[in-house]
Design brief:
By secondary structure, this protein is α+β, with helices and mostly antiparallel strands. It contains five helices and six strands.
Length: about 190
């Protein structure tokens, strides 16, 4: 009985489509938020995002994902003070020959198995969190409590060109609409 109550209390409803194959080719829009919506990645000035060193690191980690995942293409993205929006494209996946890793430096991913959107987001969160922790120790970056990123992330399957154009415009306009964001927390 106690285990059942624990499960009900701690179970999060998945926002993923149950029968959808998140390894298949296509465009995906994702949003990842800093834990507690704290602004750690820079600030908005005159409708433009001004990245601090942490924001620059986040941008670099995102762009570096193509070194780990050979079947993704980085599309539009924006690093905001407390969150991150991006479109990634999954291209044709080819399984790796025996003994060759498609994702050097990413442990725990079986070779020859197509990574999912969740695998890409998980790798990004892990790599960027580890780098942020190093910078806290070495360069006194602002500390975070327990985790850098919120546990989950938002994802949307882009199904047509009109949707892609709308979401691309949303990403591009996001810094100009910062004052409308009701979820940010200043330091």
């Amino acid at each position: 009985m106690a285990n059942n109550q624990f499960y009900k209390k701690n179970h999060r409803r998945s926002i993923r489509l149950k029968e959808y194959d998140y390894t298949q080719q296509g465009l995906y829009f994702i949003t990842i938020c800093i834990q507690n919506n704290i602004c750690l990645l820079g600030n908005i000035s005159d409708g433009k995002m001004k990245l601090n060193r942490a924001g620059e690191m986040i941008e670099g980690q995102w762009l570096g994902l193509t070194d780990h995942f050979k079947h993704i293409i980085i599309k539009e993205f924006v690093v905001m003070p407390n969150h991150f929006h991006a479109i990634i494209e999954f291209t044709q996946y080819r399984s790796a020959p025996c003994g060759y890793s498609l994702m050097p430096g990413i442990e725990g991913q079986p070779q020859g198995i197509a990574p999912t959107v969740g695998d890409v987001v998980g790798a990004f969160k892990s790599l960027s969190t580890n780098e942020y922790i190093q910078q806290v120790k070495q360069n006194n970056w602002v500390r975070f409590s327990k985790r850098l990123w919120q546990r989950n992330y938002y994802e949307h399957i882009i199904r047509n060109e009109d949707s892609h154009l709308l979401i691309s415009q949303y990403i591009q306009d996001n810094p100009m609409k910062w004052q409308e964001d009701k979820y940010w927390v200043p330091l």
